[in-house]
Design a protein that fits this description.
3 helices; single chain; Glutaredoxin; 96 residues; alpha+beta; 4 strands
């Protein structure tokens, strides 16, 4: 799964990944939520187009947008500030 950032050993910064698709209005809504939450929590994030990889397309084609925290799916279709913040906080506690 080379398309997905897995995190470096020992890193303490959560990585949020948005798997999205061009022209997807729900993807834009998810991106806005992610931008707000990472600004508040100090996490980092990136976007990956689901159509860029046969593996992603097979796994997530009907679920975009999909939100991952350190490679773990935490939401699809819709994400809220509260749900994403909670997922990032759980991840941070596990990594300590």
């Amino acid at each position: 799964m080379g398309w997905l950032w897995r995190g470096r050993s020992g890193t303490t910064t959560p990585q949020v990944t948005l798997i999205d698709r061009e022209g997807c209005h729900l993807c834009e809504e998810a991106a806005a939520v992610i931008a707000r939450v990472v600004e508040r929590t100090g996490a980092v994030w990136d976007r990956v187009d689901v159509d860029s990889s046969p593996e992603l397309l097979h796994k997530y084609a009907d679920l975009v947008p999909v939100v991952l925290v350190d490679g773990r799916e935490v939401a699809h279709w819709r994400v809220t500030d509260e749900a994403l913040t909670s997922a990032i906080n759980r991840r941070s506690r596990r990594r300590r």
